[in-house]
Amino acid sequence: MIFPIIGRRFLQFIPVVLGVTFITFLLLNLLPGDTAEAILGTNANPVSIALLRKQLGLNQPLLERYWHWLEHALSGNLGSSLITQQQVGNVLAQRVPVTLELLILAFLIALVLAVPVAVLAARRPKGIIDRLSATTAMFGLAIPNFVLGLVLILLFAQHFHIFPATGYSALSSGLGPNLRSLFLPALTISFALFAAYSRMLRADMMQQLAQEEYVITARAKGVSEPRILIRHVLRNSLFSLITIVGVNFGTLIGATVIVESIFALPGIGSLLVSSVYNRDVTVTQGVVVILAVVTVTVNLITDLLYLVLDPRVRYGSV
Tens digit of pLDDT for each residue in 111-156? Predict the structure, then answer.
């Protein structure tokens, strides 16, 4: 039963990736200017610009250029940068680990904070922890990422000098310097995630405590409230948490673009900004492919977790 579902999900994701790459290619070509003008400048000789366009293949029809790129991409060749002539695959290989490490750290911070806060808030509704978490969540959902990032830089980098303001320290230079360089940007991303996860998890747990029959049965058997809350209610509420984690992953792309630019991190978010600004179509397409594949893969993993953890999904109609 699982493999046909995986096959159907995979077939649904293929047109999504193709559609995203085509729309991106189309939008880049609708923007004013092109790579030739970005390289030579808008005040360059029109003849020189026309020659460079021909050299770069920008004078070909749009659909022909997209098909040419797609043929190479399907064979594993994402082409070369129109600006630096570097292989896009090599550029992405250097940038992707930074963004992945940033996102993983942000998710871990959000989950480590959200789960215990939600449990404590659900155990004592309208208590001190519940009220504080609600206020913090509203603040986290309201404040923009770029504002929070600047505040954290001023507070922890400029004032207390605990973390570096910008830059990235590779893992090869040591785990400590690596985590210090990523902590503030990860905290910037994770704050909104913590707000969403904690309130959603708290609301789901409260609903189960009030309505589910298994909670009433457990209480009738004399099971303690903390045991009911942690062993039974929290476990069932994790399904809702898995859903929101999978759905929110795609929205984090915009967050990484902003945060990596603020903290000067050499990830794919900052690469996307620079490639769009320079009209570097091949690099932009390579970044979009990676982001689309990663997002689609996360959603597929979310579906698989449902299949593994919930028999009702596995044996029901999907």
Answer: 999 999 998 898 888 889 999 999 999 998 899 988 999 999 999 9
In-domain check, residue 159: yes
- Residue that is written with structure tokens 């397409």 in the block: 285
Q: What is the domain count for the chain?
A: 2
d(CA 179, CA 183): 6
The per-residue pLDDT for 51 is 86
Measured torsion, CA atoms of residues 116, 120, 125, 127, in degrees rounded to the nearest 10: -120
Domain shared by 135 and 253, yes or no: yes
Q: Assess whether 96 and 179 both reside in one domain.
A: yes
10 Å Cβ neighbour count for 148?
20
| Rg of the chain in Å (alpha carbons) | 24
Place of tokens 């009911």: 228
Q: How many CB atoms lie within 10 A of CB 242?
A: 17
Record the tokens describing residue 62, joined without a space. 């749009």
Task: Give the domain extent around 32.
Answer: 2-74
Residues 120 and 168 occupy one common structural domain: yes
C-alpha atoms less than 13 angstroms from C-alpha of 36 in its C-beta half-sphere? 17
Q: Do 149 and 45 fall into the same domain?
A: no
Query: Is the CA virtual torsion 207, 208, 213, 219 positive or negative?
Result: negative
- Each residue of 74-87: pLDDT tens digit? 888 888 888 888 99
Indicate whether 229 and 172 sit together in one domain: yes
Give the N- to C-terminal CA distance of the chain in Å, as an integer: 10
Could you read off the pLDDT of 149-186 as tens digits, one per residue? 999 999 999 988 899 998 999 888 889 999 999 999 99
